[in-house]
Write a structure and sequence with these properties.
Shape: rod-shaped
Distance between the termini: 190 Å
Oligomer: single chain
Largest sheet: none
Radius of gyration: 58 Å
Strand content: under 5%
Structural class: mainly alpha
Order of helices and strands: HHHH
Number of helices: 4
Low-confidence stretches: none
Length: about 150
């Protein structure tokens, strides 16, 4: 054997054998048959994931637009502090008036109670009627120290 000759064959020499080997073709078809459902399922899932991501992107963009509108609305609100202070002052005034009216109502009820009590006392005890005799004008003048 020559040292220059190689016992190994190159890939070019074996490529011609690939097409003619039925065992190899059967094995390739069997492996392809085993892997094809998994690859198809994986491909479907990737497609569904991309569609979901696209829908999610659209929803995020819509939400972002809504948030921008909300932020603008919050920044453009009128200053309500003076109105709140006015309402608190009015509430205080109404409370004061309510207290005054309540106290007046209580006093009025007490006066009514006392009047009814006085009426009941007067109706139960008749007052003596004192009739003064009519005095003549001369008697009045003398009573007062005046003489005619």
């Amino acid at each position: 054997m020559d040292d220059t000759e190689s016992t190994t064959t190159s890939a070019d020499e074996n490529t011609g054998n690939l097409c003619d080997n039925p065992t190899r073709d059967t094995l390739a078809e069997g492996l392809l048959g085993l892997l094809k459902p998994t690859v198809d399922q994986l491909d479907d899932r990737v497609r569904i994931t991309r569609i979901s991501q696209l829908e999610l992107k659209q929803q995020i963009e819509s939400l972002n637009e809504e948030l921008l509108k909300v932020r603008e609305a919050l920044n453009n609100h009128p200053d309500l502090d003076p109105y709140v202070k006015k309402l608190i002052a009015c509430k205080h005034k109404v409370t004061v008036v309510l207290n005054v009216l309540q106290a007046s109502q209580d006093r009025l009820n007490e006066i009514r109670r006392m009047i009814n009590k006085e009426k009941s006392v007067r109706t139960s005890v008749p007052e003596p009627t004192i009739q003064e005799p009519e005095q003549s004008t001369s008697n009045l003048a003398s009573d007062r120290g005046c003489i005619n």
